[in-house]
Amino acid sequence: MEAGAVSREPPPRIDASADVVVIGAGACGLAAALKAGDAGADVLVLERDGSASGSTSMSSGFVPAPATRFQWTAGIEDDTPDRFLADIMAKSHGSSHARLAALAARTIGPALEWLADRHGLEWIVLDDFLYPGHSRHRMHAVPEKTGAALLARMQAATERAGIPVVCDARAVRLFVDDLDRVRGVELLRPDGAAEIVGCGALVLACNGYGGSRELVARHIPEIAGGLYYGHAGNTGDALTWGEALGADVAHLSAYQGHGSLAHPHGILISWALMTKGAIQVNTEGRRFSDESGGYSEQAVCVVSQPGGVAWNVYDQRIHDFALAFPDYRDAVAAGAVIRAADLSELARATHLPEAVLQETFIELEASRSGRRKDAFGRDFSSLPPFEAPFCGVRVTGALFHTQGGLVIDDNARVVRPDGAPFPNLFAGGGAACGVSGPNVSGYLSGNGLLTALAFGFLAGEGALDRSLN
Ligand SMILES: Cc1cc2nc3c(=O)[nH]c(=O)nc-3n(C[C@H](O)[C@H](O)[C@H](O)COP(=O)(O)OP(=O)(O)OC[C@H]3O[C@@H](n4cnc5c(N)ncnc54)[C@H](O)[C@@H]3O)c2cc1C
Fold it and tell me: Helices marked H in 304-381 — which ranges?
């Protein structure tokens, strides 16, 4: 059976049941499971893969949150969610779903503190660079600074809480009664065996539709030709169920893109390099955009360059800074980072035309020193000049995850177009409508894990109350 089916018949049998069933064991699903478990619910998590990983474990694991005690301890002044909300709305030029953005902005701080206090997660705040659009240092990460470590820590907490995560269990069909109450979930095992789990409440935490070529082509044609670099198993099942049930959906054209994926190595090169002064040139050696705008929209700019690739170019100072990032160190180890003693050597190693590259460097210095205005409007005035040796990484643009999805209420319950909630159906993370508006440029760094953890927290909180068991 194809996933995404809805049956209006009663389940023919129940093989197991739980107060709260969660579909998907990423950041959203585990946050929901832990929160529901804290409230005393009997919780079961279904995960299609043999072991949980999801997009969460592929991510950098950076979570933006305002007004946290971790910021306060680090001496960062960011004392209200309002400023964060203003940053979210400014990045999307006011087109984010305003209620959901406010909900996420005020929930994420308490959610991170709860994960620390109740489940032992440690948070550090990244305070040595600002992603475009963030007016304060508010990116939180676990000490390892990777999404894999974030997920591993959440998995360990789930295990300590005694919550079963059933792997190799792909949810394919929902059993929904005449009052739109979800009564059970059919799952398929890899050998084709089917099982039915009864549920008091259901949380959809199975992310978006980046893994479905068909859904990407339908909703986001501008990136359909680009690489998908998120978790392959996120094939839009929540969206398909929601649409079959008549749920409200929004911003299906929204997504997180990224314009800096080492190619062909497939390793993320952090946009933090750009914030320190790196530039991007195309294979002709020419810059083509304002790199300080944001990595998400840059995906489309890079994909539309000759060959769909670009080169990140920077110097030793930026290279040394970047070595703090685990994925950058992976890129160095994989041979993706070319190092050159001077510009001629860089041109030879990258096959970029030396004369044009030279011209690009001269223009850059002129913009930096204020002798001319940058052709793309980037402000280089506060950045030090490039100094040899230089580095180059060939990159491409990619789709990281989709941001559109099911509209939820303030308790993370899925709603109908008239705003009325489904009685016991919840959603969060990439399954829900995000806070980036309808365009790629609306994605403020961290909007992904923001709604995964904040809405997962709310779904877990509400699910036991709404459980039919
Ligand atoms: C390279 C990369 C870097 C990123 N960096 C950041 C970052 O630093 N900060 C940030 O905020 N965001 C980042 N993101 C985005 C972030 O990873 C996602 O927004 C976030 O992980 C979504 O969490 P989730 O729990 O909704 O989904 P996921 O973590 O993808 O979990 C969904 C789970 O559901 C499972 N599943 C799917 N369908 C079914 C089904 N039918 N039955 C059972 N299980 C199912 C999947 O196998 C998966 O395990 C990044 C993304 C990528 C790809």
Answer: 316-322, 326-333, 343-350, 354-368
